[in-house]
Design a protein that fits this description.
By secondary structure, the protein is an alpha+beta fold. The chain has helices at about 1-15, 30-40, 65-70, 75-90; strands at about 45, 50-55, 55-60, 95, 100-105, 115-120, 135-140, 145-150, 155-160, 165, 180-185, 185-190, 200, 205, 205-210, 215-220, 220-225. The strands form 4 sheets. The chain has a 6-stranded antiparallel beta sheet with strand order 8-7-17-16-13-14, with no helix packed on it. Helix 1 (about 1-15) runs antiparallel to helix 4 (about 75-90) and helix 2 packs parallel to helix 4 (about 75-90).
């Protein structure tokens, strides 16, 4: 997703430079970021007209992994804090207080494992929920379904490249396979010259406006469009 790609890009120079040897194996910083974003989604509090996401995260690392994160703990926590703010803003979630992220060592965890405890902790700084766009893509990956918001004016690219907004681990997908562009409140699907083509409701298309409930098929991956 966009926020995670931004996180990797900002922290990547530090990890790939001074500490490149340290992070060749074992737990990676982006894995912590992904777990925090997932915890925000799993533990958010849904009200009648608003959604509040956790803002405090206690991240436990194994005794093997923790020392490798010590040299970059300050910039890592800073970027994770920014990730929490950006994710909440993108998805229209509120925060009852400023993001708080702390790293701990858990001797019961094995190398490569981590645990994240998420909670809502009130603070002086509150970020109120905003009305999020109701248009979104639902990406089916086996038993998992991930939601990709479609913001006004945004273009969401889909493919195998890590730079894509929706990254597919699907051999039937091209590196940059297709895109969905929001144009004046309308979502438009466009195939980007893919090898195997893009199907909409079982028929191959090049460019087509989407309607609520439309089903996009790329390789073996199903993507549903949900409109406002």
């Amino acid at each position: 997703m966009p926020n995670l790609r931004d996180f990797e890009r900002r922290l990547g120079g530090l990890v790939e430079g001074l500490f490149s040897k340290t992070f060749r194996s074992g737990l990676q910083p982006v894995e912590i970021a992904k777990r925090i974003v997932r915890s925000m989604d799993e533990h958010k509090q849904v009200g009648v007209n608003e959604v509040w996401a956790p803002n405090r995260f206690e991240v436990s690392l194994s005794e093997d992994d923790a020392p490798r994160f010590t040299p970059i703990e300050t910039p890592l926590v800073s970027e994770l804090t920014r990730l929490v703010r950006d994710t909440a803003a993108e998805r229209g979630w509120g925060l009852v207080g400023p993001p708080q992220i702390q790293l701990y060592v858990d001797e019961q965890l094995r190398r490569g494992d981590l645990d994240v405890e998420a909670s809502l902790v009130e603070g002086e700084e509150t970020v109120a929920p905003v009305a999020a766009s109701s248009s979104r893509l639902l990406v089916h990956d086996g038993a998992t379904v991930s939601e990709v918001p479609l913001r006004p004016g945004a273009t969401v690219t889909i493919g195998r490249l890590p730079e894509c907004d929706v990254v597919l681990e699907d051999r039937g997908a091209s590196r940059r396979h297709a895109q969905v562009r929001m144009d004046g409140g309308e979502a438009v699907l466009t195939d980007l010259g893919s090898t195997n083509g893009t199907q909409l409701n079982g028929r191959q298309v090049q460019t087509r406006a989407l309607a609520d409930g439309d089903k996009i098929t790329i390789g073996t991956t199903l993507i549903e469009y949900r409109g406002s």
